Amino acid sequence: xxxxxxxxxxxxxxxxxxxxxLNVPAGSRRGPPTLDRIxxxxxxxxxxxxxxxxxxxxxxxxxxxxxRVLTExxxxxxxxxxxxxxxxxxxxxxxxxxxxxxxxxxxFEEMLYAVSLVQDSIGVDPSYxxxxxxxxxxxxxxxxxDIAVVEVGMGxxxxxxxxxxxxxxxxxxxxxDHVDYLGPTREQIATEKAGIIKPGATLVLGETDPNIQAxxxxxxxxxxxxxxxxxxxxxxxxxxxxxxxxxxxPGAEYPDVFLPLHGAHQADNAAIAxxxxxxxxxxxxxxxxxxxxxxxxKSPGRLEVVRRQPxxxxxxxxxxxxxxxxRRALDEEFSEGPRTLVVGLLREKDxxxxxxxxxxxxxxxxxxxxxxxxxxxxxxxxxxxxxIVKAAIELGLPENRIEVADRVEDAVGTALLLTxxxxxxxxxxxxxVVGAARSVLVS
Length: 443
What we know:
By secondary structure, this protein is α/β, with parallel strands linked by helices. Helices cover about 40% and strands about 20% of the residues. The strands form 3 sheets. An 8-stranded mixed beta sheet has the order 4-3-2-5-1-6-7-8, with helices on both faces. A 6-stranded mixed beta sheet has the order 12-13-17-14-15-16, sandwiched between helices. The chain has a 3-stranded antiparallel beta sheet with strand order 9-10-11. A hairpin with a 2-residue loop joins strand 9 and strand 10 (about 240-250). Helix 3 (about 35-45) runs parallel beside helix 6, helix 4 packs across helix 10 and helix 4 (about 65-75) crosses helix 11. The longest helix is centred in the N-terminal third of the chain and has 18 residues, at about 105-120. About 50% of the residues are buried.
């Protein structure tokens, strides 16, 4: 297909309602939740989502890293692997890749043009996420991938990605997030996420709370593999540049595997990915495949070290559970030296809860601990910095240890200026903040 020279794909895409940017309350603009728009779009695109098998991944945290580990494992087996993740950090092309390589600008433009022709001819009104999802699935079909590893955007049942028929359904974990859409309790959130489990699918269940597990198990009628029962992590220790782990899958054990990611929680993501890969091929993976694949894993914006002297880490923790995991990782692996936190939040987040999860109360007790630099994420959903400052003061942090910057770029510059060479800068609170910081810090 030839894309006309007058078609501007990025502008056309940006003209669609983007709930990621606008935070439109569920149902307020587009009626009750439905898959009708994406289903119609896919039908008129030739149902590309039926052209490849899929592993479908939901959960509150860890989805993108699990996709990245799983992609490495499956490419290590010689498969051609499409991966779909969201949101992106810097460029929308990051959301779709084949064998780890993001879609090119020209190919993405072509996919968007194909979707635009369908939209114009049948009169559907898809969202931004609908369009990107359709483009990704069309690309995967055109490129004849052997398997697609698909991350849910939000929830499960009504997520646009749920048009795929996942042979393996993966749940990383369940905690409270996106309550306006998914409900205020873990049980309601789990019920929504369980909607990705299709008849006959194998369920790989990373959530370990028995009450929450039961919600997923009630939906599953195929095989079920449970973390810490059928698979898991036997050993998980700090190593130079990451973790040294012993992993156990339903069919084998993998001792002394190096995982070049920071944070103990990343070993759980690796174990989940390994169980999912084994579920797909219905056999244990060769040790060399697992060892080599995990050694190649990268997960930008997830406890990513981007500079040294001072040490600069990026982590997209955007909810309380993620912030608590970040804090544990910092305490275990990066405890030395004064710390500067660069934090920007979205409106729906409680700043006091997020700062407490990041350890600001303990931070406040040590006058040598460092600084808090507050900024606005580059999003219409950005929380005003005054609310974060107020929450920090309520948690005991003196005003003279709080700096305010309107833009992420300015916050990064302030942190670099005020943090000593033996200190740390941790940039977090939102993937929008991390993406903007990464564009400054990573050439």
